[in-house]
């Protein structure tokens, strides 16, 4: 993509492409249909070209993958594979999810845990694990093979990160936070927990009133919050969604060559305009992209 062209201050081509692809898929465009099917085809093809033989998705010249980048790109390929059932995309998505579960998840067998940013990392974190849970769940829904232990290890790690009174921590040794609790609740939802069992943590995470502008601390977290609160439903979702739509409308550029986009801000601002705009789009797509579980 040429990350600098789109305002990124660092190499974020994989992230930009993956989030943009997810946004197109979320609007119903696939490799087979939709007004933007050519964009989807180009994005999936570009990501497939970056998969090594062992399944890792890496930047040009990079020796080892960044777990966050790999799981994000793997998620995008799994979603594309599930929606269009194209053999080449399914093959690539299968390789990627095998790397996620086989190299980025800590240990093997009954000792499996969370996911880390480096292969066979000793240190796991909830952000990487959240994207990995999305990856393995989407791959399974797409009909790809995912080792059952990948889900068991994710649950084991979430148990370790949870404080029943205060919520979730981003990594071992860190205090619970609202940002981590949003991710922890969302992961639990994807892994089969009932919304009633998560309500206390979900409400605590947005106890400031559920307004999008006050959910910490970046557009990625807002996307996770939209996903999680949509599943919780009720007043939490209604309040959050209303404020999210207001915030997006206020941030949208109205004129010029960047019309329709949102200005980058927060910790992910270095990823550029495409990344921020795709994330905001994903957040507002939630209510028609996903079904509410356990209704």
Question: What features would you highlight for this structure?
Answer:
1% strand; 11 helices; mainly alpha; 295 residues; two-stranded antiparallel ribbon; 56% helix; 2 domains
Structure description:
The chain is mainly α and 295 residues long. It has two domains: 10-163, no CATH class; 178-286, no CATH class. The chain has helices spanning 13-26, 37-48, 67-84, 87-104, 126-141, 148-161, 178-190, 195-205, 219-232, 234-251, 273-289, and strands spanning 162-163, 167-168. Strands 1-2 form a two-stranded antiparallel ribbon. Helix 1 packs parallel to helix 3, helix 5 (126-141) runs parallel beside helix 7 (178-190) and helix 9 packs antiparallel against helix 10 (234-251). The protein is globular. The chain starts with 12 loop residues before the first helix and ends in a 6-residue tail after the last helix.
The average pLDDT value, as a whole number, equals: 89
Which consecutive residue ranges, at least 5 long each, have pLDDT under 50? none
Number of strands: 2
Number of helices: 11
Helix-strand string: HHHHHHEEHHHHH
Radius of gyration (CA) equals: 18 Å
- Side-by-side strand order of the widest sheet: 1-2
The tally of structural domains comes to 2
Instruction: Choose one word for the global shape.
Output: globular
What structural category arises from helix and sheet content?
mainly alpha
Percent range of helical residues: 55-70%
Task: Sketch the major β-sheet.
Answer: 2 strands, antiparallel
N-to-C terminal Cα separation, in Å? 41 Å
Beta strand %:
under 5%
